[in-house]
Amino acid sequence: MARIRMVAGNWKMNKNYEDGRDLAMAVRDALGPSEVKVVFCTPYIHLKTVSIILKDILNIHLGAQNCHEKESGAFTGEISAPQLKSTGCEYVILGHSERREYFKESHELLAEKTKAVLGQGMKPIFCFGEKLDSREAGKQNQIVEKQLKESLFKNFSKDEFANITLAYEPVWAIGTGKTASPKQAQEMHQFIRSLVKKKYGAETADSTTILYGGSVKPANAKDLFGQPDVDGGLIGGASLKAPDFVEITKAFF
Ligand code: PEP
Q1: Whose CA is nearest to atom 8 of ligand 1?
Q2: Which of 19, 73, 98, 245 has its CA 20 to 30 A from that of 132?
Q3: Active site residue 96
Q4: Catalytic (active site) residue 169
Q5: pTM of the entire structure?
Q6: pLDDT digits (tens, 9 = 90+) for 169-186
Q7: For residue 1, is it within any domain?
Q8: Is residue 22 part of a domain?
């Protein structure tokens, strides 16, 4: 089965209401029919509006950047998976390094959140990756294996896993302007695919979409996406500029 190629934008905590609306419209208008799957992961305040802007546009989808693990209740300030779903949201970023670092999200909590998202028929974009000190110590494979085992492999069946998109994001490359080289990205993606194969079998490994994230820009997207095990990107900073984001979505061709 051919793997889905995808470019997802992570707006993080950027864009007020009007600017977010304008950005979504600018990308939609410039993109035209897209051959790769495009996902906008916006702050909560934009979800419904962007969902209306993207309505009926083939291959462009809406995503969030987090969700609470419980369905509803007294959790002031939080947003649940059913609430996200009700806006038209189809994807949810989970496990981003900023959430792991600043909000202390654990492997166990991320497994619960993943369950909540899958339970609503939405698709997690599950992020993981090593910090600089681990990379310098040559421990990146060990770290990545633990992140995948503890949250996903331990808790999800092959059928559940088939709905999860993986995003390898070396922390040292996020928002730093420092990108993993195409060779570094390929080596890690190949390793990740081998772990998926060991756990869920060759067919699942072949059809798992593995995104690379970390300072992807128009200038480096083609080389990164040209690697055999890199199926697209999770884009932070460059997703905030419509022309850059659109150019990145074209980098496969
Ligand atoms: C991200 O936040 O997921 C990310 C990859 O950010 P940037 O592209 O800015 O490095």
Answers
A1: 236
A2: 245
A3: yes
A4: yes
A5: 0.97
A6: 999 999 888 889 999 999
A7: no
A8: yes
